[in-house]
């Protein structure tokens, strides 16, 4: 009996049972194989789907039947009228006195700023001095079909002539989003 005990290996664990390493390893390998196979099938499916189903942009381009340009049998007058309509929609009409005069640096002058009734956008006008970039006037919001005939500058300028730029910024009246800008060169005269 001693010979039998010498040849027998007994392995004890905390719960009193011996582990079965080959069966556990086999289960782990099977689980990993299933996961890898599932990933490969998923990636392959995505690739096949993308290859057989073009993107939305490609489908959209394929659906376009229109050609660029206007119809060839249109008269020049019809083409010009269509272009003028597009220009008027995006056009920003600006109006300001190119030579406003102020009696003193803190008095009102004849700015004559107008947001034309044909404009589609609200405006704000900012005047800055060309030599320093200093902002000397801000109109605040100007609704369509409004004007500022005369107003004071925000800076008390000394007597003299000043080269300045009036920057008109257009805003969509519904969203308040800036849609464009235009500028005008002006000469401000302060008499005393």
3D architecture notes:
This protein is of the alpha+beta class. The protein has a domain at 92-190: Immunoglobulin-like, CATH 2.60.40.2550. The protein has helices at residues 2-7, 21-52, 56-63, 76-90, and strands at residues 94-95, 101-102, 108-109, 113-115, 122-129, 135-138, 146-148, 151-152, 160-171, 178-190. A hairpin with a 6-residue loop joins strand 9 (160-171) and strand 10. The longest helix is centred in the N-terminal third of the chain and has 32 residues, at 21-52. Mean pLDDT is 78; it is low at 1-15.
Q: Which band does the percent of strand residues land in?
A: 25-35%
CATH architecture of the domain at 92-190: Sandwich
The stretches of 5 or more residues where confidence is low (pLDDT under 50) are: 1-15
The number of distinct β-strands equals 10
Which range best describes the helical content: under 10%, 10-25%, 25-40%, 40-55%, 55-70% or over 70%? 25-40%
Distance between the termini: 129 Å
Separate helix tally: 4
With strands numbered from the N-terminus, the spatial order across the biggest sheet is: 2-10-9-5-6
Largest sheet: 5 strands, mixed
Any idea what the shape is?
Answer: elongated
| CATH level 1 class label of the domain at 92-190 | Mainly Beta
Give the gist of this structure:
The protein has 192 residues and is α+β, with helices and mostly antiparallel strands.
Q: What is the fold's blueprint, element by element?
A:
Blueprint (H helix, E strand, L loop, with lengths): L1 H6 L13 H32 L3 H8 L12 H15 L3 E2 L5 E2 L5 E2 L3 E3 L6 E8 L5 E4 L7 E3 L2 E2 L7 E12 L6 E13 L2
Parallel strand pairs: 2-10
Antiparallel strand pairs: 1-4, 3-8, 4-7, 5-6, 5-9, 9-10
């Amino acid at each position: 009996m001693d010979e039998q005990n010498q040849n027998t290996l007994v392995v004890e664990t905390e719960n009193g049972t011996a582990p079965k390493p080959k069966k556990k390893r086999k289960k782990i390998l099977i689980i990993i194989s299933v996961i890898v196979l599932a990933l490969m099938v998923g990636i392959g499916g995505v690739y096949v789907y993308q290859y057989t189903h073009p993107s939305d942009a490609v489908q959209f381009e394929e659906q376009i039947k229109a050609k660029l340009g206007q119809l060839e049998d249109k008269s020049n007058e019809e083409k010009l009228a269509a272009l003028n309509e597009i220009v008027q929609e995006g056009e920003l009409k600006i109006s300001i006195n190119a030579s406003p005069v102020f009696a003193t640096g803190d008095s009102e002058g004849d700015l004559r700023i107008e947001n034309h009734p044909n404009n589609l956008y609200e405006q704000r006008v900012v005047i800055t001095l060309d030599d320093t970039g200093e902002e000397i006037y801000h109109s605040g919001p100007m609704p369509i079909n409004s004007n500022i005939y005369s107003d004071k500058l925000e800076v008390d300028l000394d007597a003299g002539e000043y080269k300045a730029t009036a920057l008109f910024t257009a805003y969509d009246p519904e969203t308040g989003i800036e849609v464009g800008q235009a500028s005008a060169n002006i000469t401000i005269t302060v008499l005393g």
